[in-house]
Design a protein that fits this description.
With 437 residues, this protein is an alpha/beta fold. It has three domains: 15-121, 3-Layer(aba) Sandwich (Rossmann fold), CATH 3.40.50; 181-250; 257-434, Histidine kinase-like ATPase, C-terminal domain (Heat Shock Protein 90). The protein is 52% helix and 17% strand. It has 13 helices and 13 strands. Strands 7, 9, 10, 11, 12 and 13 form a six-stranded mixed β-sheet that branches. α4 links the parallel β4 (92-96) and β5. α10 runs antiparallel to α11 (385-395). The chain starts with 14 loop residues before the first strand and ends with a helix.
Length: 437
């Protein structure tokens, strides 16, 4: 890990000592005594020279300062050195010839000196004291660096805490906003559901009158009506019938089927047979063939399953290729599998046709209400049928997937919950308690 501080001292760097004396022989003597101790000796021959050196270099471990020097004494130099904040940490040992002069010694300590060495210099004493104070300086330096590191880490942690508090506050506000938005969305959806149901329901009465009156015009006024009027009246009836179908589909789509459904064991073979019986005239009119393999028994809502298969079969018949008779196949594709969605077994039922198909890039669009890939002038319909299918399957905690290619037909894969006698029978009362029959 890189150091956090520019002034960190590498462990292998020799201690740097500034020796200050106006006599060159004294400086040489100090250098000779300390030459084998792995020190870097920097020499200055006056107090001014020492100050000049210290202005450019503050990384000294120790200063050895002669007291009596011309122009500027050691005391005066020390006073100027310690006036600078960056130099206050460097210990000074005074070298003096005033042997044990208490007043002289007191003056030095008052200025900040850490010790005295008396002339003539005792080499062993000099080496010992330099070694001790160098070690003390390095220990002190490490403590100061550690303090700086701790302060920096504390400042970093304080910033992090503040940022976290700020982030938590933002998250709290966002959660509040999300809850408010969800509540507003829920209310909007409920209002839209009520509007769709009421509007669709109320629209049916005037439509019935339009159809009734149009039928009377066509059937009871044949002689009095011109061909143009008959054609216009017929178009009014067809448009009204199409709108009536749209309203009916909207009513189905707007119901909250997952809140009001009643689940029971449903034999899909019997259910599909009933659907085909109801669609007999539509199937014969298009010359269509509907093939049904053996289907499983599912745990579902009967009316919703009828609506689901009726929509898919009608879809397969309606979107047939020109000059080609429609064929719809219904079969179970695979063995039952365990499903996380239904917390039990589910089956995959496939409804396949040989119609016009679709480009796979539109696989999501075909399930969107009112989303049509073709004009209603080409193919009749309201654009709601497959949206209803998706809503029904999802109300059963299942999935519906569409696969197709242009002019190569379409396949709809329905994952539906299988009926399991022990599991589903035990849950009938629970289902009825939350789902109205």
């Amino acid at each position: 890990m890189e150091s956090l501080f520019d002034d960190d001292i590498p462990q292998k760097t020799p201690a740097k000592i500034l020796a200050v004396d106006d006599r060159e022989d004294n400086l040489l003597s100090i250098e000779t005594i300390l030459e084998n101790e792995n020190y870097q000796i920097v020499k200055a021959n006056s107090g001014k020279a020492a100050l000049k050196i210290l202005l450019g270099q503050q990384d000294f471990t120790l200063i050895l300062m002669d007291v009596q020097m011309p122009d500027m004494s050691g005391f005066e130099a020390a006073n100027l050195i310690y006036q600078r904040e960056k130099l206050k940490h460097i210990p000074i040992i005074f070298i003096t010839a005033h042997n044990h002069n208490e007043e002289h010694v007191f003056e030095g300590y008052k200025l900040g000196a850490v010790d005295y060495i008396y002339k003539p210099i005792n080499p062993n004493l000099l080496r010992f004291k330099v070694g001790v104070f160098t070690e003390m300086y390095l220990k002190n330096y490490q403590l100061r660096m550690q303090e700086r590191r701790l302060k920096q880490m504390n400042a970093f942690l304080e910033r992090e805490v503040e940022e976290r508090k700020s982030s938590e506050e933002k998250v709290r506000l966002l959660n509040q906003q999300l809850l408010a938005n969800n509540e507003n969305l829920k209310m909007t959806i409920e209002e839209l559901d009520r509007f769709a149901y009421v509007a669709s329901h109320d629209l049916q009465e005037p439509l019935r009158k339009i159809l009734l009156l149009s039928d009377k015009l066509l059937n009871h006024s044949n002689d009095a009506m011109s061909d143009d009027v008959k054609a216009y009246t017929s178009k009014i009836m067809k448009a009204s019938q199409r709108m009536q179908k749209l309203i009916k589909d909207l009513l189905i789509f707007s119901r909250k089927e997952n809140d009001t459904s009643y689940f029971e064991a449903i034999d899909l073979n019997e259910l599909v047979a009933g659907v085909l019986s109801d669609m007999e005239f539509e199937i014969e009119g298009k010359g269509a063939t509907v093939r049904v393999d053996k289907l499983p028994t599912v745990w579902a809502n009967h009316s919703q399953m009828r609506q689901l298969f009726q929509n898919l079969i009608s879809n397969g018949i309606k979107f047939h290729k020109p000059q080609t008779l429609p064929i719809v196949s219904i079969y179970c594709e695979s063995k039952p599998v365990t499903s996380e969605h239904n917390a039990g077994l589910e089956c995959c039922v496939v409804v396949e046709d040989n119609g016009i198909g679709f480009d796979q890039k539109y696989e999501d669009d075909i399930f969107v209400v009112f989303k049509r890939l073709h004009s209603y002038h080409e193919y009749e319909g309201t654009g709601v049928g497959l949206a209803i299918c998706k809503k029904i399957v999802e109300a059963h905690n299942g999935r519906i997937i569409a696969k197709g290619k242009p002019l190569e037909g379409a396949r709809f894969y329905l994952s539906l919950p299988l009926y399991h006698p022990k599991k589903n029978s035990s849950n009938v009362s629970a289902a009825e308690s939350t789902l109205e029959p």
